[in-house]
Amino acid sequence: MTSRTVTLLDVARAAGVSKSTVSDALQGSGRVAEATRDRVRAVAEELGYRPNSAARRLRRASTGAVGLHLPATATRLDYYMNLAFGAVERAQEDGLDMVLLAPSGAAGGRIASRVDGLLVIDPEPGDSAVPGLLDAGVPVVTGERYLGPATGPSGAVVCDNAASLTALLDHVTERGARRPALLAPSGSSAWATALRATAGFWGRAHGVTVTVRTVPFAATPAEAEAAARDLLAADPTVDAVICAPDGSAPGVLRAAAALGRKVGASNASGAGEALGASSASVAGGAAVGPVGAGLLVASCVDGTATRGAEPPVTAVDLHPAAYGRACAELLCDILGGRAAPDTVRRHSWSLETRASTDPPG
Q1: What is the extent of the structural domain holding 228?
Q2: Taking phi first (over 0 means left), then psi (-120 to 50 degrees means alpha), and beta for anything else, what does residue 173 get?
Q3: Does the residue 69 lie in any domain?
Q4: Helix extents (H) in 152-189
Q5: Residue finishing a domain among 9, 42, 61
Q6: Which helix (H) or strand (E) holds 92?
Q7: In 3-state terms, what secondary structure has residue 182?
Q8: Which of 36, 154, 261, 304 has its CA 20 to 30 A from that of 20?
């Protein structure tokens, strides 16, 4: 049996209302009772109704607001809070309020009736809320590309995450590292995917094996510490650890201290000689690594935790507030007809070198 496209008339018949009522309910226009609006949307979702391309282009009355969807872990990460403030500030310059969506998301049809457009930051293909938001019938801008199937055009603001990790790997190599490792984020976001792939590409290009350990996308310092201890205990020749998740690098510093590894490039060149020295040990007498061997530590995301660590940690500054502004600016430009719905813009980053990879002296 061949399936056919569900139409407005199908929804109207199933909901027991007129076709015009269905149209008004789904677009958030007209004088439709809230109970009727909810029933129509529920029926449309159950039947799998999707507005056609012509309906998507219908002019809508402005709500004066845009929505912001962040990853579920965002509320405890410095990076996303700075990004959100930047987005709010830029939206307000165009007279738009910013509505922060619940982490679980909202049905695309419902949220589309309340906002003029949407910002979806670091969208994960595994996030069940994202497809509905991308298919909500309003302009959407994603912070980083969405790697799952999308049904409509979306603008995007992207960073060159491959280049930023390459810069970190090049940097620690220049400072004496010969066996770098990466605590890579799990998940299937564009950022996480790019970092894991880049570690492999860089290693093959340089004839070096970059040891990769996967940690949660928003790993806590404690989780990073546990992963770093396991990593360094399993392979004491690792002389540089690059930690991806925001705010987790201090955990790597704690792991280094616990294993007797001195953080900083002034000791990195001595790692090979230290391998022949006596090993440090933990309770129970298990050997965990060479005493005094140098270890370089760096982070893929800069923030309060890296700047305030002891020693301060070299990191990639993604300029999150400016990134949030750039995302909101593209959405405002699309809403104002100054940019096409599928425009992609680049956002710059910078490498901030600090004591955790300082040169000798």
Answers
A1: 162-316+352-357
A2: alpha
A3: no
A4: 161-174
A5: 61
A6: helix 78-93
A7: strand
A8: 154
Q: Is the pTM of this model over 0.90?
A: no
The length of the chain, given as a count of residues: 361
Tens digit of each residue's pLDDT, the chain (361 residues): 445 678 878 888 999 998 778 877 876 656 778 888 889 888 988 888 876 543 444 444 578 999 999 988 777 789 999 999 999 999 999 999 999 987 665 555 567 668 999 999 999 888 888 888 888 889 999 999 999 886 667 899 999 999 999 999 999 999 999 999 999 999 999 999 999 999 999 999 999 999 999 999 999 999 999 999 999 999 999 999 999 999 999 999 999 999 999 998 544 444 444 333 333 333 333 333 454 579 999 999 999 999 999 999 999 999 999 999 999 999 999 999 999 999 999 999 999 999 999 865 4
Question: Same domain, yes or no, for 175 and 35?
Answer: no
Q: Is residue 80 part of a domain?
A: no
Whole-angstrom distance, CA of residue 91 vs CA of residue 86: 9
Report DSSP letters for 196-263, one per residue.
HHHHHHHHHHHT---EEEEE-TT--HHHHHHHHHHHHHH-TT--EEEE-STT-HHHHHHHHHHTTPEE
Residue tagged 């009736």 (tokens): 113
Dihedrals φ, ψ of 259, to 5°? -100, 5
